Structures
1.
Amino acid sequence: MFDFIRKHTKITMGFLFLLIVPSFILFGLDGYNRSKDKGAVVAKVDGQDIIQTEWDRAHLREIDRLRASMPTLDPKLLDSPEARYATLERLVRDRVLAAAANKLKLGISDQRLARELHDNPDIAQLRRADGTLDMERYRQMLGSQGLSPEMFEANVRSDLSNRQVLMGVGASGFSSRLAADTALNAYFEKREIQIARFSSADYAAKLKPTDADLEQFYKANENLFQAPEQASIEFVVLDMDAVKKGITVSDADLKAYYEQNTERLSGAEERRASHILIASPKTAPEADRQKAKAKAAELLALVKKSPESFADVARKNSQDPGSAPNGGDLDFFARGAMVKAFADAAFAMKKGDISDVVESEFGYHIIKLTDIKTPKQRSFEEMKAELESDVKKQQAQKKFAETAELFSNGVYEQADSLKPIAERLKLELKTASGVTRQAAAGVSGALASPKFLNALFSVDAIEKKRNTEAVEVAPNQLISGRITQYTPARTRPLADVREIVRQRWLATHAAEEARKDGIAKLAAWKAAAASALLSETLVVSRDQTQKQPAPVVDAALRTDTTALPAFSGVDLGAQGYAIVKVLKVMPREAHPEAAAAQERAQYAQWWTSAESLAYYNTLKERFKAEIKVAKPVSGRAATGGGVTQ
């Protein structure tokens, strides 16, 4: 068949043309684009869609960043609906600022980009001793984030451009002294109050739910009693240790390596020397340098004439405060421990020799070599295990990239089983049960990786039981898994969760009873203030809360004080209800001028932040930013927490 194609190329091309062109005519290019699943649109900025897959990738990057900076952080917090929505808001913000930067033509010069990269602390760690950048480690660091140097630098350039959008507003913000003092005095004003608490716990003790009550509550709130989806899986891990296991090294290779690296493997030769230093740094005037050199020459003549006096001469004349009290003794040192000129001289001498005057960046030295420590050369047999480990490690590092490619291709090409790739690469096929979408507490290693779990619980992996892609969960560590049995999330039977249902019923109804009682008392006390039964008086402010809940303090400070005493009711959600009686308004205490100036500066920052936010909101409107996903309702909002008058 292939011979026919090779001999009749024009006929074949014509036939393919007749097959392909009509499909474009019938369906159009757009049909091909639509055939690729782009995912749901979750937001839109300046006419451009943000799709679900972009949001997912952005959130995975955010999780990786947070886990790297805070390894002990609970993974469940990172992948909560609130955390995911916050990522989407940041993604929209970046798109809005990028659109504004493009509209305003805010570019970044190569010099500005270079300064930013130079000041990056992560990149600074990759610099060699001479200040040059280790490009191989730089590429590895970025590769672990799925970036090339060009992509990373483009991202930095874009980020710098985006920052300029709000920089003008941020740099120009200010507030007058009068405005700052007026606002701060009002904000930190004090209130003398009394409080009555209606605690849910007090009401819970009086409630006795019936079986019918519990069943009704259970049916109305089945989503509260769900067992999470779970899976039994098999998985394979490719890491450096796995690659090493597949490497065998012959004795001939080990002996060749031993012979080539004998000196390095046995350890470096060390020498012991004493010296006399006449200090004169390179930056000193030439006249001073010459004077120091002449002084060193005089001392050299003296110790050459009487070598046994070297230590005494060093004590009296050496300007090295560290060694002079010890007669110039520097103890044993390797070649790399000393500056080059000094090391070259010391390692060229014989034991007992005294050098000529040696010039270094510190001044002029006279060196006496007092001892030589030659490392014992270990035999091949003594070092065989160590040699084998070194050679395997080196070969594994070279082989890993090649094996990783085989691994990635293998789990994709034979997507219905991990056994073939495990056998081919001699990897252990592992199993795990009870695996959930979020890593359980105490789980570590690859099964705690959000990237792997996200891939494992993808629609394709769940429905078709296919292998996941090869996921990099750590440097030089890839994992692929496959679901063998899947149990979807389900409502647990009432019999299994009866006590949990009872506790939730009590919490809900106790809070409601407390709220009803509190609201009734509030109305009665407003009508007859003298009948109010409240706590002893206390003084609260925003910076002196007296350990009161924030809603209570907030209610006290927001209460209309036109006529005193004044009452406010505070819904504390699951905690119950509170009534606040405001007795007196107390002005803010005067602060020393230095502290007051610092507070005004803080207020100016708040004001600037508010202006920046207002400008950003204007940009959102201008570029028609729209989030199409409902914002998660927080637990407090869901319980109806707030203030009632």
2.
Amino acid sequence: MKKSFVYGALVLMAAAAVNRVIGFVYQAAIYRLIGPEGVGLYNLVYPVYILIIVLTTAGIPLGISKLVSEAEVNGNHRLSYQVLWLSLVILIASGSFFTVISHLASPLLLEHVFANKMVYPVFRCLLPGIFIVSLSSAFRGFFQGLMDMKPPAVSQVIEQVVRVLLGISLALYLLPQGIQWAAAGIAASGVVGEFFGLTVLITSFLRRKPLNIVISLPGIAASYNILRKLFKMCTPITLGRIATTVMLSIDSMLIPFVLRETGYSTSAATAIYGQLTGVALTLLSVPSIITVSLATSLVPAISEAVALNRSFVVSSRTSEALRVTLLAAIPFVSAFMILPDEITQAVFGSPEAGHLLSVLAVGGLFAYLQQTTTGVLQGLGYPVIPLINTIIAGFVKVVGIFALSLYPSLGVTAIAYCFDIFFILAAGLNILSLYRKTGCYVSISNDVFKPVTAGLLTAMIYSGFYKSLYQVLEMNFLSVTISLGSGFIFYIFAVAMMGSLKKSDLRRLPYIKRLIR
């Protein structure tokens, strides 16, 4: 069982990594194709769409995976399929209900929620995805409960590939009809990709279903018992996801409103929102591929230490999670601060978004610490604590952004600083909670001062290499690529020489681990 779990986890991580890379390249291509206003139109709608998805699925997929896993451990294969069947009935009903309600409510949403009336075709194109995602989530939960991660992984990759190929094609075809139709084409491509992903999941399910098991609904008593367990597991997760998506939805409504109040036109406000979410925040999230992967490997170890009541091990592993996150994040933050305009130009062709990236980089380090500390708190068995901390920080951010409408001179830069305050406050509260629960600590000399010193030296490498290369090559993309690569290599060498980087850190990366051996 353990071997299959580790193998399945690696399969999902590999698929997630492939999807993140493809998705990042796709976002850069789409931004260059339809510009900041087109991306802004899509990002205005997407948080509301995700909120509807969260309400539709209500955390049921996670409950399915846990109940199916328990049934398989007990050898009750029939119960596994009954859990899936009952959940499918619920999700078909909720998917249909929310799809219809969203369709009927779309004029109201357009009037009172969305900041730009041009999002209407984008939102309508997303609506079929509500039903499709609800079905897909059930099958994904089922396969994860069986420890068979290959079908979900394959479906995610197929979904992403279809989305990218069709999205670029539809955007090119529809762009002459208007930027809102190009954004709608991108939304429609996502739904088609989800449909192909669902097809892969259903095909895999039909191939593996034993012929001697007849899928049928359980009896009333058994159904009640399954539903009780499902919603008991789902409620905390659902509340957390609702809180997160509600905050994203508020951002999508509030930021364009505040920008219009400060004197920007609706079109300009949408474009700036596109620069913030489609460029600056997208680039800021890149290091999370590394920090989340490194921190994730520590969470099971922390959970194990908690189960064995080894408080010292819990404290030391929590401290290690913080140290590793700082170590991995600093070179990225240095790059975002030193070469913001050059990076945004090289990736998105949008140097005007560089200023936003440099401001967000101030809180970037805390954004990565928030991700790590949230995972560790969940591993400790305190999932509600990071939820409450995120809500508190989110409330402060919303109040700050809204207050900016009273001071138009502060502009969009102040909005980016509000995000920094959110990251700092959420991470700070999480770290304080961890200290109280575990007594964890961070060595100022080894874990902070040395990596920061290496980061400052790396920043000099970034700047010096870029200026020298650009004078010779006069090619921004190549100059940025070589400068960042050289800087990262120098940083790794520097922290290794200072003693901050250990072999145990490298062993957390699968391929590096093999090289060390």
